[in-house]
Amino acid sequence: MGVPPATRLLVLSDDERFQTEVTATINHCSDLTQTIADTPSAARTHLAGHPVDGVIVDVETDRLDAGAFHAELQRSWPTVSVIIASPNSRATLRPSLSFHAFVCKRGPLLGTSLPELLRIVTARRRTDDRSTVTP
């Protein structure tokens, strides 16, 4: 039995500070890999060609309609876990925006709690690389 594959993450954010914090955190975890996309278009391009286990969506990203992007994720990549990142509490998000987890971008525990959160929300989804779900 070999080493399980790394959990593959896509981070959609144009916030350089947040990108740096997430990268520093992920780089210390041998079981996590990441790709940064700074626009929704770049995220779609990556998703179309590379399987991922989870997407961290910074709701403050320019040109991002979080609701539309989330709906697209659910429609085209339904097995991908969605983690919402915001500088504020969940109360600032649309009530219709469903997601697997929430992280506060400026939270003091971002670096220590993010890896475990990512492992938990992607654990069941890592077993299937198919982009669609069979009923």
What does this protein look like?
The protein is built from 4 helices and 5 strands, in the order βαβαβαββα. The protein has 135 residues and is an alpha/beta fold. The chain has a single domain (10-123), classed as Response regulator (Rossmann fold, 3-Layer(aba) Sandwich), CATH 3.40.50. Strands 2-1-3-4-5 form a 5-stranded parallel beta sheet, sandwiched between helices. Strand 3 (54-58), helix 3 (66-76) and strand 4 (81-86) form a beta-alpha-beta unit. Helix 1 (16-26) crosses helix 4 (110-122). The radius of gyration is 14 Å and the shape is globular. The termini are far apart. The model is unreliable at 126-135 (pLDDT under 50).
Which class best fits the helix and strand makeup? alpha/beta
* CATH architecture classification name: 3-Layer(aba) Sandwich
Q: What is the CATH T-level topology? A: Rossmann fold
Shape: globular
Distance between termini? 30 Å
Q: Uncertain segments of ≥5 residues (pLDDT<50)?
A: 126-135
Summarize the entry for a quick read:
The chain has helices at 16-26, 40-49, 66-76, 110-122; strands spanning 7-12, 32-37, 54-58, 81-86, 101-104. With 135 residues, it is an alpha/beta fold. It has one domain (10-123): Rossmann fold (3-Layer(aba) Sandwich).
